[in-house]
Amino acid sequence: MGQSKRASMIEALANVAIGYGISVAANIAVMPAFGYHITVGQAAGMGLIFTVISIVRSYMLRRAFNWLHLRGE
């Protein structure tokens, strides 16, 4: 049996939340190595921006692959 819609939503939300946390931590760790000293708030803001970009990218790729799949039938 496949994954339920509820389980899929929980998985997607967990993926986004974990990705956001990694992004914030990476910003705090990496930016100073390039000479940028940022606050936790700035790191969180940048993480949010990149998280939204990632969600949009993922959605657009999913739709493109779906279109290609349907076109091939």
From TrEMBL:
Chain ranges passing through the membrane: 12-34, 40-61
Keywords (A to Z) from UniProt: Membrane, Transmembrane, Transmembrane helix
InterPro entries attached to this UniProt entry: DUF7220
Top-level taxon of origin: Bacteria
UniProt cross-references to Pfam families, sorted A to Z: DUF7220 (PF23858)
The protein's name in its UniProt record: Uncharacterized protein
Organism of origin: Microvirga alba
